[in-house]
Design a protein that fits this description.
The protein is α+β, with helices and mostly antiparallel strands and 473 residues long. The chain contains ten helices and 14 strands. The chain has a five-stranded antiparallel beta sheet.
Amino acid sequence: MSIFLRIWGVFAVVLMLGAYFTVNVLQQQIKPSVKKAIEDTLADNANLLAALLADELKNQAVTQADFEKNIKQVLNRKIPAQIWDYQKTQISQHLYITNDKGIVIFDSRGIAVGQDYSRWNDVYLTLQGRYGVRTTRTNPEDENSSVMYVAAPIYDSQRMIGVVTLIKENKMMLPFIEQAQQKMYQRGMVVLIISLILSALVAWWLRHAIFLVAQYARQLAPKQQQPLHFWAAKELNTLVDSINNMRQELEGKNYIERYVHTLTHELKSPLTAIKASAEILQETLSTQERQQFSHNIMAQTDKLQLLIERLLLLARLEQQQQLQSQVIDLSALTQRIIEQKPAQIQQHQVLINQNIAQGVTVLGEAFWLEQAISNVLDNAIEFTPPHHNISIHLSQSTQQTLLGISNQGQAIPEYALPRVFERYYSLPRPNSHHKSTGLGLTLVQEVMSLHHGQATIANTDDGVCVSLVFFHV
């Protein structure tokens, strides 16, 4: 089962159980609440009637036919009342009156006159000076057959002369109770459905967020884009930070181990050559031979120094997560790099052709851009035969900025083209047939990646062209 279904399932169970118990409790409170409201109304009406009937009972008018006729006319009158959603058409209550002994002297239903009600709670409690009320079922097996009786004392001055009891059948309350219960069920179902939908959205969001974190962890690389960030999800952001920290710690160990291995491997060959030359110099040699082996030691030492410098530079670049970006005048920067290399240009006897547009700017870090452009230009100078051309072209469009450095000379073999940006991969120089450190183009590629651009290399009709492309974000 997917985590989405598990999370949503737990939400759904909790919501449904909560809704069930809440609605159940409220449903149990509806009927007593309605009965309390009805009883309160009956108590008010009973006391009003008691005050109005005091003179009638004192004068014994309640036993006369006219009184009974008037009461029945009142109780049978039509009432066109729209009470919320319920249509009321007639009075739905009755009454009876007892004397001070509890004997019924009037009953609007005409069934209890002459009976002794002194033991019924409504009459008994009222005669005792207390609040008289009772509920009695006409059918002991049917809860809905219960009838409510609320009594009030009838006084002549300070003397109680009788009791009036109002009668209300509970079945008359059922429409209100059923209507309230139905509305509660309907609204409860609406709330439950909305809650289930919202819980499903929350569960999906959690599942999607966990999936993104997992994908982020799988695809995490030294030059990974900005870490994931979730709005209002502190725990997920903490998890992402933990993965980032763990990755950096692991990479730090692997990074050091990899550099130690590669540095050891790359240092082995120059050190072997230096050691061999030094051992030979201990023997008796001619001046020319000594100069030759001394020159070899110096060349290998220079190679070691360049290798260490490039490795340190590359290590610094790979550990840099973000650039301190600013607007760089790429035209001026390229021109300044060319002007810094007159000795190399003169030594290799190459010609520089410039087609540099003025005012071309990019967003980046000047130090690294200078390192990248200088490395590409150094390669072009070293691979260009004497009296041949190096062309530098800089242009800018709405979508990208292009710096192309091409040189006349030998083309790169097809087998080597896919590997020229690999670490430590190098081709022999055409003049000396020596290989470089193999880190120059690797550094160029890292710099361009950090600047959200790309470095490409391709053979041309008369040589090789390296293109540095800056994409406008």
